[in-house]
Write a structure and sequence with these properties.
Elements: H1 2-13, E1 30-32, H2 35-51, H3 53-64, E2 68-72, E3 79-82, E4 87-91, H4 96-114, H5 126-155, H6 159-167, H7 169-180, H8 188-200, H9 202-223, H10 235-242, H11 262-265, E5 267-268, H12 269-286, E6 299-300, H13 306-313, E7 322-324
Bound molecules: zinc ion.
Zinc ion binds at residues 105, 109, 137, 140, 323, 325.
Length: 332
Amino acid sequence: MAFYREFAEYYAQYPYDNSAPKEAPLVDFNMDVMPHEAKRMISIINEVAKNSPLGKSILEQACAAGYKLKFQSMYNAKGAASESGKTITLSTCFPPKSLFSTLVHESRHACQFEKGYHCNFENYDLKSSIMLSRAMEADAQAVAAGACLEYAATTGSKEPLMAMNANAAPVIAKVVPFVQKGQKEANGAVLRAAFEGWYDNTSIVRAYEEQYQLNPLKRELSSGIKGMHNKSVSSATITNDLCIDANGDKYWAKKPDILEAENKIAISRDTVETADTYFTARMQKMGVLPDKSYKDLPVKEAPATEKKANSSGFRVTMSAGAFFDLKKNRGR
Ligand SMILES: [Zn+2]
């Protein structure tokens, strides 16, 4: 019952409005929206485009790549980027100021896909898979937080920043000092700090490891070994390709090996043990030598609260080609 009441409260904030949009979108996305949704979508696009040069540049790249925008009622996730359908989806269940950072974040995933980085992490050796899956998300959060900083500097309003703080407090904590000293541009220093902040939330990092490394290995062990996990990519290649600011500069240019830092590469003990079992089984079945990429990585215990967080706080949505986000569930 609580669920329906909360839902009704969300919709009550946005009364049905079928009047024609007054503004044209400043980034000319194709939109797959109902008439009454067009106004909301255009207002989110234009809030980004008017107030954040970084956000605008990312939206323009996603638009040029042919991505279209739509709304969907997703209660637990604020947004998604689907490569196969070239679609960026925003949840109807969150207010526009909250979707400001989501549109930038999901558009950034679209840009990552366009650069040849996909969610097929099971194709990579374990170390590469860990570095890439985490970096793609940390970078998307970094630019989203950077856009919120620029919005605050331009408009004086911290609303998008605070809305993002509800889901990504460790990321925003790294950005707030820049806001307080009047930083206007989401430059390399801001993006590096926000990127670092993503790794501070060990529950999120763990949830990504379960989703993209641990559970796929377990699934193959129980349903049949496919023999992937071979491709290799370095930290420098990932950061030089993906971690780009609004001017096209590489924000980790001076530390391209950052993804090998202990707090970014550490792997959980149960993932190591599952990988050992998997690669032994793969050798027996297919004669493929075991992956040794993860053998020297720092090992950590899985967070004790991890099971609880996964059953009550996070939802991982599986969909072919989609990069769905792990967001803390509202109201819990
Ligand atoms: Zn994401």
